[in-house]
Design goal:
heterotrimer, A mainly alpha (about 270), B alpha+beta (about 375), C mainly alpha (about 290), A: mainly alpha, about 0% strand, C: about 290 residues, 2 strands, binds adenosine-5'-triphosphate, binds magnesium ion
Chain lengths: ~270, ~375, ~290
């Protein structure tokens, strides 16, 4: 296929170069011997070794992972419920307010979300720490989960649920035995999205964390404000590697499943 | 034939399995079902027939419990089921889209309903095997729905809805997705299974031939109303309205005014320049009353010379539709009216007697058609 | 009963953690700064009751926002930066999305993944990567000096140029994806029909492709514009002291000046400004959904 004109080729090349060269440079210079991030002085892994010694970073990383696991799990449960209510709940009083509240955080500037939650926590006299960050993250990422899950639910054949009811399943059984297994991929995708949003968040965490709990982005932000440092490069490289592996694995699994499904279908048509 | 002995609807002592009592269903301010009363009896194979949007699916969904009547009540075996949720009704439905659970194997799909009913494990297994045998699916039980063909899926859907031995099985256009040959085979299979299991079937279909083939009784619907409920033969031979006559099969409608001619015969003046047609009727009509004579094309004979018959008209062959075993002739009369006549093709085409533009005579007996007042 | 729980749980959660906080912001925006903990007045007091409490609230902070040039300049400059950055992102993103739809079928999933992948990697890290590139002794200056295009290093980091680069870089996938989706749905034979009817390739592009991908363009532009308006990280890491953006002002008002009522008032005004594009965006999405149905 040669529908690609030279202009298309240039667009793609320049576009992807723009997206990936900064990341590539970052990764390469994490293996730089020199303290100066912009001057190459030979290959070395010493910044990784140093990073592993850095208690503050390790602690922050641990807090971040904890927050992400808890908040994304809560967000997935709440977001899936919200999606189900919006797609299948029918009419109820306050539905408009509810759907407004589900979608508003998507477009709300993080500074405002962070500020408002902080003011709430202070009003409640709640000590700021892991708990408050988890609550904050769960609230804003449940909206992303419910967008992902409701997109799937909208294309879900309602007759499947009705068939389950018809065969004697209670509404809850119909959800647990039929709906949930079928929408599971989107629920998992929602969880992963919530997890990565939580890992990534600086602004809301800055507002809602206290001295007892510092997350990795907060740590990185304060380090980076002082300028570039090879240790941060090393840390970034590790995070990028984890995410890349995750995304590639996920897309390979999806692809394999699609291929298998197609093969099965062809088989079914031939043998029938 | 079974239909001759099986006629519980004619027996006033029979208790119906399902009774619709002036059921009305509205969606917003749109009325989908209006004031519908209907009895369906045990072991019946009941077909709902009607144009798209007339409320067939809505009736099924009310029986299954997915919709509640706006007013009126539905009884199952003498009990009002209005407040019974779908999962507590001994009614099962076979969905038009089959609605097979894609993540479960064929075996698990069929066992799904049984597992919900706290049946012991051994019994469930035996029952599923029985269903697999009945629908000839034993070989596929470990497969997932996307690994079998369309016809097999349809059988799984049937097996799944039959597994719980419901009092009533609802089938919403179950055969719509199958090609003609497979559909005919499956129709007989359905009848066979219905007879074997003794379950009451209510089937929705678009295909009138299918309704005539499988059903013990047929209900013809239009815009949320029942137009006629009868055996297939009565519906075909003695429709109660022009609508029903027209809906089922081909028909010629001659509209005019009746004049009693004694002996249950009426002379109908129906077109200027044509002699009145003589028709028999059990229903009395007054002089000058507006009537419609519905007459099936196969009851109209076609001949070269003027036949010796009560009703005979002359016309020209306008069109011939060759259908293999039959040919339908469209005959234009002098006044421009068109009458369809059908003959069986017992001879080869080359020796067919009539062709375009031939002048022919059409004739029929007084009892060939029915007189209708609406 | 189950249905009630199903609705109530997420509903109450959102009421408590989204709507109520919001009302608190609004209330504090009407309060006065004070040297207290928390640093604003009035505090609600059961003794004096609601009437006395409400009487103390006023719009003083909003008046203050209009009187100090810093604030309205910050709003204007945020708007300006968001508009320009959105346009640049569109100009960069459209050709990429277009080229993706022209690429061989087999490549497309991979191209899509490559567009989405940066989205999953940390936003902070991606901004950080640009600090090393744009600084005085950074890679861009090194490269330009080496090629001889310039003879002395340029100052890019800590200027608005760096902010634009950061925004375009961060939000490019949000622009590309909706446009790609719109172009992908576009029937190729439409272009052929236009060419068949005498359009040149360029005029077919203008008269057919662009109008039919309008929904994607609009959606992508809002997806870039809305978050950019309240952006904090990019101006604070890549921008300089001259970069005025409202997200940054709010942050500083809150953390550095500890003036909570003014910070809250800044937030309320920002939201009011955001309502217009959000409503327009919603309407566009709805129209698109209806068109598809
Ligand atoms: N949930 C609903 N809300 C509003 N109107 C509805 C709903 N369900 C059905 N209707 C309307 O009720 C009427 C009857 O619908 P129904 O599905 O029963 O038709 P049908 O006879 O099954 O048609 P088809 O042969 O096309 O399946 C239709 O006009 C339809 O638009
Ligand atoms: Mg229907």
């Amino acid at each position: 296929m040669t529908r690609l004109s030279w202009f298309n080729v240039v667009s793609l090349t320049v576009g992807f170069a723009f997206l990936y060269i900064p990341i590539l440079i970052l990764v390469i210079y994490s293996f730089n011997e020199s303290k100066l991030v912009t001057v190459w002085a030979g290959f070395s892994t010493k910044w990784y070794a140093e990073l592993m010694q850095n208690e503050a970073f390790l602690n922050a990383a641990w807090v971040t992972v904890k927050v992400a696991v808890f908040s994304s799990t809560i967000a997935t449960v709440l977001g899936t419920m919200a999606a189900y209510v919006l797609v299948r709940g029918g009419r109820f009083t306050g539905r408009t307010v509810f759907s407004g509240m589900v979608y508003a955080p998507l477009v709300m500037p993080e500074v405002i979300t962070g500020l408002s939650l902080l003011l709430l926590f202070i009003g409640l006299n709640l000590d700021r720490g892991v708990l408050t960050i988890v609550l904050a993250h769960a609230t804003f990422s449940m909206c992303y989960v419910s967008v992902v899950v409701s997109a799937r639910l909208m294309t879900f054949d309602r007759a499947l649920e009705e068939a389950a009811l018809d065969l004697g399943a209670s509404p809850f059984e119909a959800f647990r035995l039929v709906t949930l297994p079928i929408i599971a991929p989107s629920v998992i995708a929602g969880w992963l999205l919530a997890f990565s949003l939580s890992l990534d968040d600086l602004v809301i965490a800055s507002f809602t964390s206290g001295p007892s709990a510092t997350t990795l982005p907060i740590k990185i932000f304060s380090a980076v404000r002082l300028g570039v440092s090879p240790e941060i490069n090393a840390l970034s490289t590790i995070m990028i590697a984890i995410v890349t592996l995750g995304v590639i694995t996920a897309s390979l699994i999806t692809k394999r499943n699609a291929v298998r499904q197609q093969r099965d279908q062809q088989l079914a048509e031939r043998t029938s | 034939m079974q239909t001759e002995v099986f006629a519980p609807w004619d027996d006033p002592d029979q208790k119906p399995l399902i009774r619709f009592k002036s059921v009305k269903k509205q969606f917003g301010d749109f009325t989908a079902i209006q004031d519908l009363s209907l009895d369906i009896f045990e072991k019946e194979f009941f077909a709902l027939l009607g144009p798209s949007g007339c409320g067939k699916t809505t009736m099924m969904r009310m029986l299954a419990g997915f919709e509640t009547p706006t007013s009126g009540s539905i009884e199952l075996a003498g009990q009002d089921i209005g407040s019974v949720p779908p999962n507590k009704r001994s009614v099962n439905m076979m969905f038009q889209s089959y609605a097979l659970f894609p993540h479960l194997s064929i075996w698990e799909n069929i066992a799904f309903g049984l597992k919900r009913s706290k049946m012991p494990k051994g019994e469930i297994e035996a029952r599923v095997e029985e269903m697999l045998r009945l629908t000839r699916l034993e070989k596929f039980k470990a497969r997932k729905p996307h690994q079998i063909s369309g016809g097999q899926r349809q059988r799984v859907a049937l097996a799944r809805s039959l597994a719980k031995a419901p009092k009533l099985l609802l089938l919403d256009e179950p055969l719509a997705a199958l090609d003609k040959k497979l559909r005919q085979d499956t129709q007989f299979e359905l009848m066979d299974i219905q007879e074997k299991t003794g379950t009451t079937f209510v089937i929705v279909t678009h295909d009138q031939e299918e309704a005539m083939t499988v059903a013990s009784r047929v209900a013809v619907m239009d815009e949320g109303r029942l137009m006629q409920v009868s055996t297939p033969a009565t519906i075909y031979e003695a429709p109660n309205s022009v609508y029903v006559a027209d809906f089922i099969g081909e028909v010629n409608i001659l509209s005019g005014h009746a004049k009693p001619a004694g002996d249950g015969l009426y002379a109908v003046t129906w077109a200027d320049g044509q002699p009145p047609v003589i028709a028999a009727s059990n229903t009395p009509y007054s002089d000058g009353q507006q009537v419609h004579l519905a007459i099936r094309p196969e009851k109209v004979a076609i001949s070269e010379a003027k036949p010796d018959a009560e009703n005979a008209v002359e016309g020209k062959v306008l069109d011939i539709a060759y259908l293999g075993n039959l040919s339908t002739y469209h005959i234009a009369l002098a006044g421009g009216q068109i009458i369809k006549a059908q003959t069986a093709n017992t001879q080869r085409i080359s020796r067919r007697s009539f062709t375009w533009e031939d002048t022919v005579w059409l004739s029929w007996t007084p009892t060939a058609g029915v007189l209708l007042d609406q | 009963m189950r249905r009630f729980i199903l609705i109530a749980v997420p509903y109450i959660w959102l009421l408590a953690l989204f709507l109520v906080p919001f009302l608190i912001v609004f209330k504090i925006a009407l309060s006065d700064t004070a040297l207290a903990r928390p640093p604003y007045l009035p505090q609600f007091d059961w003794a004096t009751g609601l009437g006395a409490f409400l009487a103390e609230l006023d719009f003083e902070n909003f008046v203050f926002l209009t009187s100090d040039a810093l604030y309205w300049k910050a709003y204007l400059s945020s708007l300006q930066i968001a508009v320009i950055a959105t346009l640049i992102t569109l100009l960069v993103g459209y050709p990429i999305a277009y080229a993706m739809t022209r690429a061989p079928e087999a490549w497309r999933p991979t191209l899509m993944m490559l567009i989405i992948l940066p989205f999953w990697t940390s936003f902070l890290i991606r901004i950080y990567a640009w600090m090393g590139i744009l600084s005085q002794e950074g890679f861009l200056n090194q490269f330009l000096l080496w090629t001889g295009v310039i003879s002395a290093p340029l100052t890019i980091l800590n200027t608005n140029v760096a902010v634009y680069i950061g925004i375009v870089y961060t939000y490019l996938p949000f622009m590309i994806l909706p446009i790609y989706a719109a172009l992908d749905r576009l029937d190729g034979s439409l272009i052929e029909a236009a060419e068949d009817l005498g359009c040149s390739r360029l005029s077919a592009f203008w008269l057919v492709t662009i109008p039919l991908s309008k929904n994607g363009i609009v959606a992508g532009s809002f997806l870039v514009f809305i978050p950019t308006l309240g952006e904090f990280v990019i101006p604070s890491l890549l921008g300089g002291s001259g970069t005025l953006m409202i997200g940054k002002v709010l942050w500083e008002e809150f953390f550095s000046n500890r003036d909570w009522p003014v910070a809250a008032a800044v937030a309320v005004v920002l939201l009011v400004i955001l309502i217009v594009p959000i409503v327009l965006f919603q309407r566009n999405q709805q129209k698109q959904a209806e068109a598809e149905a």
